[in-house]
Design goal:
Length: 226
């Protein structure tokens, strides 16, 4: 199982998640004309900034992740925020994202509860590797999907480019980057908790300089694991 970044222990103050274009440019001619050749694939790059490593649990968790990843050797699942995803305007006030306890108000032994879903969206038909379009079957949605929102299929992350509703419950979408892997009809389209399989951008990303040996607010950079 791929290690997942623990947002509950190491929540970033700043999140940058973008698709880095893959392009090469020849030297400019005297006229100023320059040829640029690009791949349509691109790679996800994510930066978590201002992470509050301010107590023993956070420091030890950081060090444990660093020991597990061994620089750029091992992949990690990087979860992204549900902000600006399809959700009702009052989702936070209603506690729709909050874990739910058992009927007797107790939780599991590790302190976690049940996690429900705001959106239930599935692939209406299979998606081939390197496809850039799909058809979604929307069983339940907090709000209408919009271009610019993100979703994941398994451990792969995508961003919506266009959304065309062909009926009240079916949406034809295009997305980037091209599908990293084939996906079968009926597979869940993860809009509530999108993740991306990544690696550290450099072997030094998990270096942890502690102020007075006690706390730090580091930034860590990830690049998509393809």
């Amino acid at each position: 199982m791929t290690l997942r970044w623990p947002l509950d222990i190491l929540p970033p103050r700043e999140i940058v998640a973008d698709i880095a274009p893959r392009s090469m440019a020849a030297p400019a001619a005297v006229s100023g004309v320059q040829q640029v050749v690009a791949s349509d694939a691109g790679l996800w790059k994510v930066a978590f900034g201002g992470i509050p490593v301010v107590n023993g649990n956070a420091v030890l968790t950081w060090r444990a992740i660093a020991a597990t990843l061994e620089g750029r050797i091992q992949p990690i699942l990087v979860p992204l925020s549900h902000w600006y995803q399809p959700e009702p305007p009052n989702a936070e006030a209603l506690g729709l994202w909050n874990p739910v306890a058992h009927s007797d108000n107790t939780r599991f032994t590790d302190g976690t509860g049940y996690q429900g879903s705001v959106n239930d969206v599935r692939l209406l038909s299979a998606v081939a590797s390197r496809a850039v379009s799909a058809t979604f079957n929307v069983y339940a949605a907090g709000a209408k999907m919009q271009p610019g929102q993100i979703f994941s299929l398994g451990e792969r992350l995508y961003r919506l480019r266009t959304v065309t509703w062909t009926s009240a419950t079916v949406a034809a979408v295009t997305f980037r980057p091209p599908a990293r892997e084939a996906a079968v009809a009926g597979q869940r389209v993860e809009l509530d908790d999108p993740v991306c399989r990544m690696r550290l951008a450099s072997d030094a990303e998990m270096d942890l300089p502690l102020d007075y040996g006690r706390w730090s607010f580091p930034t860590v950079n990830f690049i998509e694991d393809v």
